[in-house]
Amino acid sequence: MSAVVSPELAPDGVNGAKQRRNSTILNPRTYLTPEIWKQAPVLTGSTKFEPLDDARNILVTGGAGFIACWFVRHLTLTYPDHYNVISFDKLDYCASLNNTRILDERPNFTFEQGDITSPSEVKKVLRKHKIDTIFHFAAQSHVDLSFGNSYQFTNTNVYGTHVLLERAREHGIARFIHISTDEVYGDVPIGAADLSEASLLAPTNPYSASKAAAEMMVSAYRNSFKLPLITVRSNNVFGPHQFPEKIIPKFIMLLQRRSKLLLHGDGSPTRRYVYAGDIVDALDTIFHKGVFGQVYNIASKDEISNTDICHRLLDIFEIPHQTSTELQKWVQRTEDRPFNDQRYATDGSKLAALGWEPKTSFDDGLKTTVDWYRRFGEVWWGDITRILTSFPVVEGTEIWTKEEHDALPSDEELIQEESGIGTVWTKKAWDHLQASGETD
Ligand SMILES: NC(=O)c1ccc[n+]([C@@H]2O[C@H](COP(=O)([O-])OP(=O)(O)OC[C@H]3O[C@@H](n4cnc5c(N)ncnc54)[C@H](O)[C@@H]3O)[C@@H](O)[C@H]2O)c1
């Protein structure tokens, strides 16, 4: 674990992004310059409840990522005298300390870099900050990547959740809120009823399978050890601060660059969307009013197809797209995911009974989101060019286009080419040696 590095220590390059072997390495520790930073709006939810007596020190895993950063800002700024918020994040490729920079001087906010798959790091942070409440967001969250890198998804989402649960049990936690997804239910045919929390889990891709498997572990700890757990399954979330690998920010940034939208398959799958400010209010509601042992869907009625997202964004950017010729100029169909659920549809009445309902319409949320990305999308994370391509490949914080990655030499070829020696090196060890200058 380590403290936040100062901006002066950030590495060289465009906002910290370095180029190497036809790839981009993102640096989530890099800070924006103050001139840009000061212009950014401070985005939170809008709810405020009577603080809980038995909650004081709250660990938020994945706090430098999209949804959790909204929640961290909300808790820190809405409950300054009641809750201490500890953001615990590995700082993966999609994270950014810019997401919580506004909080750095706040006495009730701390950032700790750490990995949920490390039992010792989790134990240390729980003890150091006398944690009584955990909000568990940290995950590998991008479905597209889960088809190519599924071990990473199982490791983070299943094993990482297991580590947190076990350490939480040993530590004696008062409250553990686990963030899951509507994707665990699998595809819901058109015309079928919206699914309640009691529905069977039937995930269909490695991401959703890893999230469902994590839920099984949550369920086991609830039953075996009576851990005070609540599980939350949300629809798709969108809004400012989302890493531009996901469809809405990616398409905004492509249009911003006057590039074509890269639409997977026929564009017909739909998703239901919740604005980030609304999910924060939902989580705040569940935190203060939710019942242990329960599962809550966070559900919206805004069901939008991928094609429809293209149309709405082209409207906002005032780009003509009425005729098929105009549309073809701006929308390019690409290969689809190996498998793509047609739709998810969940019923939110259980959470509505606690008093939550979405306040932001899809169109209003989209306009706010476009405005934010127009101002900050190019600088917030560093060089996102490769992320904006179709099916980029991510390893750690290093990004390639699919074509670049396909053209990379195999580990064996690379080692033979670069070492000129007979010893069998792993590529990782060779990279390490090169970086340390020992091969010169
Ligand atoms: N984005 C959505 O539409 C959506 C919808 C439903 C549920 N969810 C769930 O919400 C949660 C947050 O999603 P998001 O879109 O904000 O994700 P994100 O990808 O923006 O952020 C994930 C964060 O987790 C961190 N992380 C990854 N591995 C880690 C590890 N081993 N240890 C510590 N930190 C680690 C990353 O650095 C990153 O900051 C996830 O659990 C996701 O499954 C997301």
Question: What secondary-structure arrangement, pairings included, does this model have?
Answer:
Elements: E1 18-20, E2 23-25, H1 34-37, E3 57-61, H2 66-78, E4 84-89, E5 109-113, H3 119-128, E6 133-136, H4 143-146, H5 150-171, E7 175-181, H6 206-225, E8 229-234, E9 236-238, H7 247-256, E10 261-264, E11 270-275, H8 276-289, E12 295-298, E13 303-305, H9 306-316, H10 324-330, E14 331-334, H11 349-352, H12 362-376, E15 393-395, E16 398-400, H13 402-407, H14 411-419, H15 427-435
Parallel strand pairs: 3-4, 3-6, 4-5, 6-7, 7-8, 8-12, 9-11, 10-14
Antiparallel strand pairs: 1-2, 2-16, 11-13, 15-16
Helix pairs in contact: 2-8, 3-5, 5-6, 7-9, 7-12
The chain binds nicotinamide-adenine-dinucleotide.
Nicotinamide-adenine-dinucleotide is lined by residues 61-62, 64-68, 89-92, 94-95, 115-117, 137-139, 141, 156, 160, 179, 181, 211, 234, 236-237, 243.
What's a quick, concise take on this entry?
This protein is 36% helix and 16% strand. The protein has helices spanning 34-37, 66-78, 119-128, 143-146, 150-171, 206-225, 247-256, 276-289, 306-316, 324-330, 349-352, 362-376, 402-407, 411-419, 427-435, and strands at 18-20, 23-25, 57-61, 84-89, 109-113, 133-136, 175-181, 229-234, 236-238, 261-264, 270-275, 295-298, 303-305, 331-334, 393-395, 398-400. Helix 6 links the parallel strand 7 (175-181) and strand 8.
What can you tell me about this protein's structure?
One of its GO terms (biological process) is nucleotide-sugar metabolic process. It holds the Pfam family GDP_Man_Dehyd. This is NAD(P)-binding domain-containing protein. Helix content is 36%, strand content 16%. It is α/β, with parallel strands linked by helices. The chain folds into two domains: 7-400, NAD(P)-binding Rossmann-like Domain (Rossmann fold, 3-Layer(aba) Sandwich); 411-440, no CATH class. It has a seven-stranded parallel beta sheet with strand order 5-4-3-6-7-8-12, sandwiched between helices. The chain is globular, with a radius of gyration of 22 Å. 45% of the residues are buried. The structure holds nicotinamide-adenine-dinucleotide. The site of nicotinamide-adenine-dinucleotide has 29 residues, from helix 2, helix 5, strand 7 and strand 9.
